[in-house]
Amino acid sequence: MCLITTFARGLFKPKKKLALPKVLSKDECTIYSFNYSSTVERLYNHNHIQFLHGKAVGNNTNTIVLGISALENKILVEEKAYGFVKYYQKLVNSTDYQFLGGNPDITSLEKEKFGTNTLGLNEIIEIYLWGHSLDSSDSDYIKEMFSFNQGPKPSINLIIYYFGSPHAQLANLIWIMGKDVIERWMKEGWLEFLESPDIYRLNMEEGYVDKLSKRSERKPLELFGKVKKNSVF
Question: Per-residue pLDDT for the chain (233 aa), expressed as one digit of tens each?
Fold first, then answer.
């Protein structure tokens, strides 16, 4: 499973088909977009995209969601200024904002980790965040991701793409989740920071290869002796 953010919408139209980054190489991959543009859908012809905060163009019933994660200022709380809060806008506008907790592939896998059935013990879903600052305005989603891996074995690995340096994103995660949680996930290998694919080099530089997680680069696309066709990993 992929979790990415799309780029700002513009009039850019490639003269030829763009080379696919590895993370988008399978159409079965699901994309949750925190952006409002259809860039990935338009440039890469990807079909499985869910717009968590609404979509700016096209036949879309979701209302655009803009704002902060919660009211922290005492005056704003007393004035009940919830119109600025994302979750309030989602409730009022009936935005279809189901995230990982509404994905049966992840929730059923997490349940299997608690049971005696060994069928799913070797399966791990990889979630990639691309182009996301991990700012506190999306803390609800971030907390939802870290609510998994509660069973005897992990159900997800979280891979965060960074541009230049991962320091700001790591600092945001520590601020939201606390040092102990982030430290444990990194020690266990459930959380990984990876340099973002360079789209220009991928299309213009011969021999350039972008990367997936360390585990994905090492392992074959096999599960219990057979290829798992609906996985990008």
Answer: 444 444 444 556 667 778 888 888 765 677 877 777 777 777 776 667 777 777 776 655 556 777 667 767 677 667 677 777 776 767 676 665 567 766 666 777 777 777 656 655 667 888 899 888 888 878 888 888 898 888 778 888 999 999 999 999 999 999 999 999 999 999 999 999 999 999 899 999 999 999 888 888 776 544 333 344 444 33
Of all helices (H) and strands (E), which one includes residue 117?
A: none
Instruction: Say how far apart CA 70 and CA 116 lie, in whole Å.
Output: 40
* CA atoms within a 13 Å half-sphere pointing along the CA-CB vector of 200: 0
Distance between terminal CA atoms of the chain? 8
Among 24, 23, 52, smallest CA distance to 36 is for 52
Distance CA 190, CA 56 (A): 34
